[in-house]
Design a protein that fits this description.
heterodimer, A: about 500 residues, mainly alpha, two-stranded antiparallel sheet, about 65% helix, globular, B: about 500 residues, about 0% strand
Chain lengths: ~500, ~500
């Protein structure tokens, strides 16, 4: 199979060079601490990435001016996926080589879970070198931004446009925010905002009784909606501190709303009436009210304010697909758990660090049902689905419909695979939903985000599921479809 | 009172009249077994149904009218709830089920062919009451209105709209020009199945009474039995189990396909895409469970393992809900296989419930098309079922139904969750009622019953059963403000 070489080199250089540079940060950190083995574990993949990236860049320069064969969508898929696999593998190397006997699957699982902002682990973090944990937090942070950036830049540049990888909702938000041009510029502004947000949280968390290092780790993993990194793992000390919990909830919320809202605020200096953000807040408010009532009604909590405080934290934690507060909700009543499960599946807004079905699609889901009801009552009527004054075209509505169907179908099929581990129906479903939505934690045995109960093959499978959920399902599913590989 | 309302009342009068007549076999059973109190209750209910029904029929003269889709929703929903209500009267009056909400749950479960019960000690009930309970399955399986139309062609119900509101599945093929003829043909076939299964079960050593009750549960895909341990009562007889498996599967098949057999032979079945997917799911899940049960050493004999797996899969995919084994004790993979058939349901135009295989089939094809379109954006794909392209409106309706089903499932879980039982009990009780299956997992597993739910939760579950049986929209559009908006267009 012949590929478009220019695209290949470009993609690989774009992936490998920054990766090599970032790998040097924990390397230096370990070196300063005098942990030579650990430093070496970072140096090896770092040098490999830098060398690979340099070679790719060299080839790219060489091919300047040579006309390429027409790029096919297929090439885009193959090259981007190959790049992603390489990225995940190289990021897993430090875990393997750090001298703590982390198995092949565990290292891979950590790498994938961090990049996909799931943030869960399959080993105990106790005794793992600080540099390695820093690397985990860094990959979480990068993973929080990268899908957003990839969706609006690389996929577009590759010519995999709306029809290709970026389906449906994001284009609606683009229409609303009127930022269809200058994608690279947009990404820069969004990145600046992401960095500002990170610094702000770091300062706020440092003011708490966390050590600076813990504040840094938790900032990195929190603004990327990955959850919390609690090295001790034995206690949920951090999340029980009111101040820390408020800070984490605020930033998880900020990270899970549509980033174009920030772009709008920064460029126009006023709040946009972004329908998606508004719908998101409505959903969150409804969930908080229902859960607080349920907690009071069932007697799980005896007074109003603790119930409200905990329900806000857990609702934000689940809706933003972070999962830092699941330990609070372990013994919550059934109705609350169902609401949390639904929030998790809906996830955050479309252009954000969060995953899940996303709010726009969920709104269209609701409106389609309401329209269906209306059409049954008035069979001859024609009624379009209108979201915030914009008509959703039939094609887009059906694209969203299929996405949701596919999402649910994958949950069911994945549950069949995971059920081979015989961990019970509920744990199986929780693990699958927590993985595909990149939340990671949920009630029951998964509350602390420890996946070591699953066998190695199932852990590997769940890591693939995390990727599927993170990239918006289609890119991975397409790779496994027969029509992709048939030569027609 | 406008003309539509007048007609709706008249038809409901007729249906009450017919319901009264339908009590006759139970009355006969009561007389045979000398159950005096039950006989009196049945007799009184019969009189109370037949006389008002007759009066309504006489006062309001018959005139042929066409019912709009919108009116048929109200009509069908009213009919089903009213009939369930009436049917619950003898159960409570005779003291068999003392609480009326329990009896209402039981008859809703009966007419919707769900088969969930609140009874802990089934054998304690009078035989005639158990007969009546199971007979509601038989009536509800094909549809109460279809039954009435078959009995009384002069009823004046015409138009597809009612058929669409009551018949399971997205399309109702017009087999004959007149609706009452279609109804008659369907009922003849239904009678045939009932007769054949009763005879075959009696060959297996059942008494006529037992055979009739298991047959009603099977052909209506309901699942009520007169024994607490369901079909496990005949656990030593593979013959009885396989007869029931085959009849369950037959009744979960699109009944319209059988009318093609005289013309095209058995190929008529195998050519149908829905039937093929149905069989594929049954075979794949059965194989999966059989292998796991043997591999984990739960049932060591291959024959017994296959029988247990096939029975449970057929029972759940056809939404019958009989049990021969406590599948809740099976390993997760086997339970997950069952969970899949919990979610698919039976074929369209069968007596089964659930979302229906045809909808799953079209959805799968739509997913496949959308994946192919991602790679070849400019290509044109049409979705075909049985060689015929599926219209866009039909696809929209199908996806809409599935979305609505998911929504109702989750809302149901949130509501039933308030009752305070665990997640799996809540989820599976809602799923099993909405899909008209019967048993679920955990506390509503095959060896337990629904008796522990609070009265309000039982009513909610009963409404879900009827809503599920009438394919959601008929019942739930009545909750929409658009429905009651007089501005018709």
């Amino acid at each position: 199979m012949k590929l478009n070489n220019r695209l290949l080199y470009k993609t690989f250089s774009v992936i490998l060079l920054p990766l090599g540079v970032t790998l040097m940060i924990p390397m230096i950190f370990a070196f300063v601490q005098g942990q030579v083995t650990v430093a070496r574990a970072f140096l090896i993949p770092g040098l490999v990435s830098l060398a690979g990236g340099a070679v790719a860049l060299l080839f790219l320069k060489k091919r300047q001016g040579i006309t390429e064969r027409k790029m096919l969508i297929k090439d885009g898929y193959l090259i981007v996926s190959a790049g992603a696999v390489l990225l995940l593998l190289l990021s897993a190397v430090p875990y393997w080589l750090c001298g703590k006997h982390i198995g092949p699957v565990d290292g891979w699982f950590m790498s994938v879970s961090s990049w996909t902002t799931t943030g869960v682990v399959s080993i105990s973090l106790k005794g793992i070198p600080c540099a390695v944990i820093l690397w985990k937090a860094m990959t979480c942070w990068m993973g929080g931004f990268i899908m957003l950036a990839v969706a609006i830049t690389i996929f577009n540049k590759l010519g995999i446009n709306e029809q290709g990888l970026l389906s449906g909702p994001s284009s609606i938000s683009q229409q609303n925010a009127k930022v269809t041009a200058h994608f690279t510029g947009t990404v820069k502004i969004l990145l600046i905002f992401y960095v500002v947000m990170t610094i702000a949280e770091l300062i706020l968390l440092s003011l708490s009784d966390m050590s600076f290092f813990a504040a840094l780790l938790n900032t990195l993993s929190n603004v990327s909606t990955s959850g919390m990194i609690d090295v001790s793992r034995s206690s949920n000390y951090f999340v029980n501190t009111t101040y820390i919990r408020i800070v984490m909830s605020v930033f998880a919320l900020l990270a899970s709303i549509n980033f174009f809202e920030y772009y709008y605020v920064l460029t126009r200096h006023r709040m946009a009436k972004n329908y998606e953000v508004r719908s998101y807040f409505k959903i969150l408010a409804a969930a908080v009210v229902l859960i607080t009532l349920d907690l009071m009604f069932t007697g799980t909590y005896h007074s109003f304010f603790p119930a409200l405080r905990d329900s806000v934290a857990v609702v934000v934690s689940n809706a933003s697909t972070s999962g830092y507060a699941s330990t609070i909700a372990v013994n919550w009543p059934t109705t609350s758990l169902f609401i949390l499960l639904i929030l998790m599946m809906i996830g955050g807004c479309s252009v954000s660090a969060a995953s899940g079905i996303n709010v726009t699609r969920a709104v269209v889901f609701w409106k389609l049902i309401m329209r269906g009801m209306y059409k049954r009552i008035h069979p001859r009527s024609t009624k379009a689905v209108i979201v915030h004054g914009h008509k959703i075209s039939a094609g887009k509505a059906s694209s969203i419909t299929i996405f949701i169907m596919l999402f649910l179908m994958i949950i069911i099929l994945a549950a069949v695979v995971v059920s081979l581990d015989d961990k019970g129906l509920l744990t199986t479903f929780y693990a699958v939903i927590a993985s595909i939505t990149n939340t990671g934690t949920f009630s029951g045995t998964l509350a602390t985000g420890d996946y070591s109960i699953f066998s190695a093959p199932i852990r590997f499978f769940l890591s693939i599921l995390m990727v599927v959920g993170r990239v918006g399902i289609y890119p991975v599913v397409v790779l496994f479809s027969t029509s992709f590989w048939s030569e027609k | 009172m406008n003309i539509t309302m007048k007609n709706i009342i008249r038809v409901i009068g007729v249906i009450i009249f017919v319901t009264g007549i339908c009590i006759a076999p139970s009355l006969l059973t009561a007389l045979i077994y000398h159950e005096v109190r039950s006989a009196v209750c049945f007799g009184a209910t019969m009189v109370c149904c037949i006389i008002p029904g007759f009066i309504i029929m006489k006062i309001l003269p018959a005139d042929s009218f066409k019912m709009h889709a919108r009116d048929s929703f109200l009509f069908v929903t009213l009919t089903w709830f009213l009939v369930s209500f009436v049917a619950a009267v003898p159960l409570t009056a005779s003291g068999a089920i003392p609480k009326f909400y329990d009896a209402f749950f039981e008859t809703c479960s009966g007419f919707s062919t769900t088969g969930s019960t609140i009874l802990g000690n089934i054998e304690a009930l009078p035989k005639s009451m158990l007969f009546w309970r199971s007979f509601t399955h038989w009536l509800g399986g094909m549809g109460i209105i279809v039954f009435t139309a078959a009995l009384m062609p002069s009823l004046g119900i015409s138009g597809q709209s009612i058929a669409e509101a009551e018949a399971p599945g997205p399309t109702m093929d017009k087999l004959t020009a007149r609706y009452s003829d279609t109804a008659k043909n369907l009922y003849l076939l239904y009678f045939g199945f009932t007769f054949a299964e009763t005879v075959l079960l009696m060959f297996g050593g059942m008494s006529l009474y037992d055979a009739l009750i298991q047959t009603f549960g099977t052909v209506g895909t309901g699942g009520f039995s007169n024994y607490g341990d369901s079909i496990a009562h005949w656990g030593n007889s593979p013959y009885i189990q396989w007869v029931i498996i085959i009849f369950m599967l037959m009744c979960g098949t699109n009944f319209n396909l059988y009318f093609g057999i005289p013309k095209h032979g058995p190929k008529a079945l195998l050519k149908d895409s829905e039937f093929r997917l149905y069989m594929a799911i049954v075979i794949a899940t059965t194989a999966g469970i059989t292998i796991e049960l043997m591999a984990r050493g739960i049932i060591t004999s291959p024959g017994k393992s296959l029988t247990a797996a096939a029975f449970q899969v057929s029972s759940i995919i056809t939404t019958t809900g009989y049990a021969t084994k406590n599948y809740d004790l099976w390993p997760t993979f086997s339970k997950m296989m069952l969970m899949i058939v919990f979610l698919t349901g039976a074929c369209a135009s069968s007596t089964g419930g659930g979302p229906k295989i045809i909808r799953v089939l079209v959805t799968l094809k739509m997913i496949r098309r959308s994946i192919a379109l991602k790679i070849h954006p400019s290509r044109v794909y049409t979705i075909k079922v049985n060689g015929k392209p599926v219209e866009r409106d039909v696809m929209t309706n199908i996806t809409n139904f599935i979305f609505f089903y998911i929504l109702v499932l989750f809302v149901g879980c949130i509501i039933i969750g308030i009752n305070g039982y665990d997640v799996m009990t809540t989820f599976s009780s809602v799923l099993t009622c909405l899909g008209n299956i019967g048993p679920g997992f955990n506390k509503v597993g095959p060896i337990y019953n629904f008796g522990f739910f609070a009265p309000w939760a039982k009513i909610v579950l009963a409404v879900l059963m009827i809503a599920g049986r009438l394919e959601l929209f008929a019942v739930l559009t009545l909750l929409s403000p658009h429905y009651w908006n007089s501005n018709k267009n």
